[in-house]
Design brief:
With about 375 residues, the chain is of the alpha/beta class. The chain has 19 helices and seven strands. Strands 4-5-3-6-7 form a five-stranded parallel β-sheet, with helices on both faces. The two termini are about 20 Å apart.
């Protein structure tokens, strides 16, 4: 990403060019004046903290020793780690809180980097770190720590998460810095013990990984017998990305459960009540599953929660789940949408982009990130 390369601190001085950064990104300027909890952030508003965190990262020998491309990606992550705080900050009984800013930050990072043309894997690496950037602070208290650490390793790297958390805490003025740094070190040790610190956690098979993330208490090293009897191909992508075209080119002989087709047949508008459409679609899916037929699920399926309704159903019927995440640059996608017989309003697409969660390897046997540009 050239824009971040140009702004990333570099030898010999490792200076953070904050004025240029503010001038370049409106979302950085939006951090100014956003208040924080004075107990944990006595340094000032979110912009001050973000600048200090970036400067802390630039001073770390571990970061300076990384290859240039990794330094740029990590600097981008620290720069964006609190990007959602202006939209989550509120006063609760006189105390300033920013509940949910990590998850919302994940969504905002995806939109911003998509609009900047970032490669998918690069973007999802940054987004995953932003979503989990607070985990090392109190990681050993979480009962789901192993799953979180494994998920981070599959999308990004836990040693990157350690450096992000270190820069975050060093970019604050607070009384518990030493304690939090100890917790971060413990998280690093934990990930090393779990063999997921600087590389993806290995599983015996795709099937073993799929069921590890679905079944609580599952041993990650258990080589589960693959008893799947069909494949469900679940598409995920914004309107105009070319899902119908992809199916015609890649799965022409499979039956398709299409929510758009069902809406047209049932006379339901996209803005109307979608529950009857969803009910009809899932009943069609059950018919294919009961018959042992592979099929394609054709819907936007932009959130993990929506995809789970389909992938969970497939798992119940011993289906193998294949997720196809289709993307196109914003200008291409919007042009295609405008050329459709019934285009989706731009305002609706904007709302969908704001809720967009790219499929990841914890959701399926296989996940493919594909460009249709």
């Amino acid at each position: 990403m050239r824009v971040f390369e140009d702004l990333c601190p570099a030898p010999p001085h490792w200076t953070v060019p904050w004025p240029q950064i503010k001038e370049t990104f409106a979302w950085v300027r939006d951090l100014a004046g956003v208040p924080q909890d004075a107990i944990h952030h006595a340094e000032g508003d979110v912009e001050v903290h973000t600048r200090m965190a970036c400067e802390a990262l630039a001073s770390l020998p571990e970061w300076r020793a990384r290859p240039a491309g990794e330094r740029v990606r990590l600097f981008t992550t620290v720069l964006m780690h609190d990007v959602a705080k202006p939209y989550c900050t509120q006063t609760d009984d006189g105390r300033i809180t920013a509940h949910g800013h990590s998850r919302r930050g994940d969504l905002m990072v995806r939109r911003i980097l998509w609009e900047l043309g970032a490669p998918v894997a690069w973007r999802e690496h940054v987004a995953a770190l932003v979503r989990h950037h607070q985990v090392p602070f109190w990681a050993l208290e979480r009962p789901d720590l192993q799953k979180i650490a494994f998920r981070v390793s599959l999308l990004a790297r836990n040693d990157d998460l350690v450096l992000l958390a270190t820069a975050d805490i060093l970019g604050r003025i607070c009384g518990d810095t030493a304690e939090v740094l100890d917790n971060i070190a413990l998280y690093e040790e934990y990930c090393a013990e779990q063999e997921c610190l600087d590389a993806p956690r290995r599983f015996p098979s795709d099937h073993a990984r799929f069921w590890y993330f679905r079944k609580p208490g599952r041993d990650p090293d258990y080589d589960a017998y693959d008893d799947t009897r069909l494949t469900v191909t679940v598409l995920s992508g914004l309107p105009g990305v070319g899902k119908d075209h992809w199916i015609a080119a890649n799965r022409p002989d499979l039956p398709v459960v299409s929510l758009d087709r069902l809406r047209a047949e049932m006379g339901v508008k996209p803005s109307g009540d979608q529950r009857p459409v969803a009910t009809a679609a899932h009943e069609l899916a059950r018919e294919h599953l009961r018959a042992g037929r592979s099929f394609v699920w054709n819907a936007t399926s932009l959130s993990r929660q929506l995809r789970e309704q389909t992938t969970g159903l497939a798992a119940d019927y011993r289906g193998r789940v294949e997720l196809i995440a289709l993307e196109a640059p914003p200008e291409v996608l919007r042009a295609r949408n405008r050329s459709r017989p019934a285009p989706v309003p731009d305002t609706v697409i904007d709302r969908m982009v704001g809720r967009w969660e790219t499929p990841d390897p914890t959701e399926a046997h296989q996940v493919h990130w594909l460009s249709t540009a």
